[in-house]
Amino acid sequence: ATRHRTFYRLAATILIAFLLTPPTAAQPPWQICGKSGNYAANDTYQSNIRQLSATLPKNASASRTLFATSSIGSLPNIAYALALCRGDGNASACEACVTTAFQDAQQLCAFNKDATVIYDPCYLRFSNQNFLATTSNDNIIVLKNTQSVSSPVDVFDAAVQTLLNATGDYAAANSSRRFATGEEGFDTTNPTIYGLVQCTPDMSPADCRSCLGDIITQMPQDLSGSIGGRLIGVRCNFRYEVVPFFSGSPTLRLPAPPAPPAPPPAPVNVTPTATPRGKSANNVLAIVLPIVAAILAITTVCLCYLRRRRRRQARSELPHDSTNHEDIDSIDSLIIDLSTLRGATSNFAEENKLGEGGFGAVYKGDLPDGQEIAVKRLSRNSGQGIGELKNELVLVAKLQHKNLVRLVGVCLQEHEKLLVYIRKEERS
């Protein structure tokens, strides 16, 4: 009675899986019958298979990884077996699935010593050949969904491979079950692609990733453009769909791939008109000359504006308490740029210093026209304030006498207060 209840539960589970699974070329179980020989009814090899069918389902379901291998007997009747349940399953479903697989294998591949049977929840292989000694991914089955994507095939295939490779990296390196699931955003027609990968847990991370890599690279050849498909081997397998098919939350979530660039606009066919050589040169001049004239005009306006701005800035730094407008206008013509005085005195070099008084130092220099000058540089901390400087400017600017030193310039820029005098009169 217990065995019957277990069988009915498995039958119900498989029926539900059939109803939820997207249409493929066939429905489970899928079988591969080998060519390594046959056995007779009730002979030693069949007895060994029956012993394996009594122990392997329990061993697989009791394992934390839902996986088991075993061998029994001696040559020439030794039998090897492997059972693997899907990593998102549970122990009871695993045991029921492997038990049923042993029964179906002996019916679907009757008296064949090498049989592989595959279901959604598990798969089983037994053989008289020692396939357990290798990680070769034999007996691969390709299952392809009969529906095709409406999106560009190469874009969809690339997205599927990206998802399977990322999920395969995780399964090989981070899971003791060598199992992982994932989902990836795609487009409005197929918002999400779901994927699952698995290796037998006895494989090393490198062997598992290599096995998965081999079958994932086959995807564009075997499953291109299909909205779902599987490649299932004895050692590793993958599956992808555009609808959910695994239990629980995905191990990985990938964002949607970037949208492909928009196609370039169609070229416009324009027939060029022939232009005589003389007219071509005139056309070039007609375009270039106005541009050059405009650039020169803009440059001239900018220079005039900058010069006038500097004068206004220097005037704004003079005090406005007791000096009338006539006094300030008389100084306007004496304003000299700070850059000119720095060049004349080699940037107030020490070797050009003539002396130093209570209000600052005096430097010798030469203007660009050869005029020898003396520049009085008032100290910022000197006792001579801006008022005294104003008085000296107004007074000296108005007084021009052969026995007086002649003031030829003034600079009030960048917190500098500079008076420029003739150092030596030119003689005729």
From TrEMBL:
Entry keyword ATP-binding: yes
Q: Where is the Gnk2-homologous domain?
A: 27-131, 137-245
Quick one: which residues bind ATP? K376
Q: Name one GO cellular component term.
A: membrane
- The Protein kinase domain covers 348-428
What top-level branch of life does the organism fall under? Answer: Eukaryota
Q: What is its main location?
A: membrane
Q: How is this protein positioned relative to the membrane? A: Single-pass membrane protein
Q: Which residues form the signal peptide?
A: 1-26
Q: Which Pfam families match?
A: PK_Tyr_Ser-Thr, Stress-antifung
InterPro entries (UniProt xref): GNK2 (IPR002902), GNK2_sf (IPR038408), Kinase-like_dom_sf (IPR011009), Prot_kinase_dom (IPR000719), Protein_kinase_ATP_BS (IPR017441), Ser-Thr/Tyr_kinase_cat_dom (IPR001245)
CDD domains recorded for this chain? Gnk2-like
**Record flagged with keyword Transport:** no
* SUPFAM superfamilies found in the cross-reference section: Protein kinase-like (PK-like) (SSF56112)
Its Gene Ontology molecular function terms?
ATP binding; protein serine/threonine kinase activity
- Where does the record say this protein resides? Membrane
Where do transmembrane segments lie in this chain?
A: 284-306
Q: Which UniProt keywords apply?
A: ATP-binding, Glycoprotein, Kinase, Membrane, Nucleotide-binding, Repeat, Serine/threonine-protein kinase, Signal, Transferase, Transmembrane, Transmembrane helix
Q: What is this protein called?
A: Gnk2-homologous domain-containing protein
